[in-house]
Write a structure and sequence with these properties.
heterodimer, A: 347 residues, alpha+beta, 8-stranded antiparallel sheet, two-stranded antiparallel ribbon, 11 helices, B: 165 residues, mainly alpha, 2 strands, binds zinc ion
């Protein structure tokens, strides 16, 4: 997956996720393990059939999480392909994942299927089209639970209707410096948007990253919901953040330069580094890069934001798993080398 | 000001003049009634009592709601209210009044789906709810070691699947 896309200065990633359940089966909370296995078989067959059709959907890998090693499950959650809850819970569950890692299907999460498309930058309408292409292909091979009044039925009654969740991960350092984040959050709530942290539900915001998503799924068409979120709300949020950045830079230029260059210096010199500390400094560097203060590629920052996460780091150098100190040391070394010599590893 | 005869607050206040001597009288509602005073009516009676019939109806509806159970998957209302998660598609009809409230408040008052619908549509859904019920009954029968009933249910499931696929 590429690291950078349109409006990447503010929008880190875009995602569209569709909740669907196979009709004729209980929802997950009432499904015993044998029933969950059967749901997986039905979904897998639908994935195999629909993805064999010419030019319809991408080729999918099938990963059964209950038998996958813990590191692989954490890798998936660090890539935002599965929720942390899904990575760590029990029971038969799977992830179907396209080669380019844009398209995926969580099987037996809160709903039988969570069909999603994830990509860098502000590309919600591409994500929307791709998610529905995959959903349509699957609908040709299986029946989704549908109610004449409530639309697509979901395990949690508040997701019924279109069963669609559109999200954008935004980087809001400008709003943070101008102390506008709380106001943005309040305004978002009035617009029925959910605001979450870096790792979705229940997670803290690290490094000024906030995930915005729609809550309304009923009483409007999918296209109208997309138009509202992607056509009205998101451009406003992006515009607001850009204005806040300009204002911040005009008012507090030396303070901001100080923060940005110190973060760069920190990461270029540190010998021990936790993933949270690295994320915070990378977020500050990211701000400096998009404001033209730091001559570093945005793609490098994005790549490092992922690679400083524990499971990703252990792929680069498995010694990071030996102890907490080793983890910090490996991270500091890797980040330092990437920033001073350029990337040595493009995994 | 308390009642002349007890510690309750007085609701009747009168000045009684007897033989040229004026006397203040303060009585609570009970002692006022006992002394034959008409009670001062602050609220029309109709406002106090009018809803008895509807209260009973609401209570009846609530107790019906509380004892509701999904016939297909066996989920009870109490469990649903605790977890806010439903057990199967048929739950949407089993817990209708509650579901309606939950959805409307979460969805800003929206009451109907306006988006896309699957090609197969609603006909399939009815058959599928029966399938959920058979699956649930089968698990219950197996757990209770009612093997004859389980075998019968398994046959019914097979018949249903061959009919729909
Ligand atoms: Zn009294
Ligand atoms: Zn049910």
């Amino acid at each position: 997956m590429s690291q950078v896309g349109p409006d990447s200065d503010v929008v880190v990633t875009s995602r569209v996720r569709l909740a669907r359940n196979i009709s004729g089966f209980p929802f997950i909370s009432r499904a015993s393990n044998p029933v969950r296995q059967e749901i997986m078989r039905v979904v897998r067959r639908a994935v195999d059939q629909s993805c064999n059709e010419k030019n319809s959907s991408p080729e999918m890998r099938w990963i059964e999480l209950q038998s996958a090693p813990s590191r692989d499950r954490i890798l998936l959650s660090e890539r935002h392909l599965v929720s942390r809850h899904f990575a760590n819970s029990d029971g038969p569950r799977a992830l179907a994942l396209s080669k380019d890692e844009h398209s995926s299907i969580m099987v037996n999460e809160e709903d039988h299927l969570r069909i999603q498309f994830l990509c860098a930058g502000s590309r919600l309408s591409d994500a929307f089209k791709a998610a529905f292409t995959l959903e349509n292909a699957l609908a040709n091979c299986t029946n989704f639970s549908f109610h004449p009044r409530w639309g697509y039925l979901t395990a949690c009654p508040t997701n019924v209707g279109c069963g669609i969740r559109m999200s954008a991960m935004l980087h809001l350092p400008g709003a943070q410096i101008m102390k506008e984040t709380d106001r943005i959050k309040r305004a978002a709530k009035e617009l029925h948007l959910a605001v979450r942290g870096y790792y979705g539900e229940g997670s803290e915001s690290i490094g000024d990253f906030f995930q915005f998503s729609n809550q309304t799924t009923l009483g409007a068409t999918e296209d109208a919901l997309l138009e509202e979120f992607n056509g009205i709300v998101l451009p406003r949020l992006i515009g607001y953040e850009r204005e806040a950045r300009t204002a911040a830079l005009t008012r507090y230029r030396s303070r901001i330069e100080d923060i940005v260059f110190r973060s760069h210096a920190n990461l270029s010199a540190a010998r021990l580094l936790t993933s949270d500390a690295a994320t915070k400094d990378l977020s500050r560097m990211r701000f400096g890069v998009v404001m033209g203060l730091l001559p570093v590629e945005l793609a490098t920052i994005q790549r490092l934001l992922l690679q400083v996460q524990p499971a990703h780091l252990s792929l680069i150098d498995p010694r990071s798993l030996e102890s907490e100190e080793a983890d910090r040391e490996v991270r500091a070394t890797y980040v330092r080398q990437s920033l001073t010599r350029g990337p040595t590893d493009t995994k | 000001m308390n009642c002349d005869h007890c510690d309750k607050p007085a609701v009747v206040h009168e000045i009684v003049i007897k033989g040229g001597v004026s006397n203040e009288v303060h009585l609570c509602s009970e002692h006022a009634i006992a002394a034959g005073y008409p009670l001062p009516i602050e609220q029309p009676i109709a406002d106090i009592f009018p809803k008895l019939g509807s209260v009973a109806k609401v209570e009846a509806a609530k107790s019906k709601e509380r004892s509701a159970k999904c016939a297909a998957c066996g989920l009870t209302f109490t469990v649903f209210r605790k977890s806010a998660t439903l057990g199967c598609p048929a739950c949407y009809d089993a817990f209708m009044p509650m579901i309606e409230k939950v959805i409307e408040s979460a969805q800003d008052g929206a009451t109907h789906h306006l988006g896309r619908s699957p090609v197969g549509g609603v006909e399939i859904e009815r058959v599928q709810n029966l399938r959920v019920k058979l699956m649930h009954d089968l698990e219950v029968a197996v757990a209770a070691e009612h093997y004859e009933r389980a075998a019968k249910l398994r046959d019914e499931l097979k018949a249903l699947d061959s009919q729909t696929s």
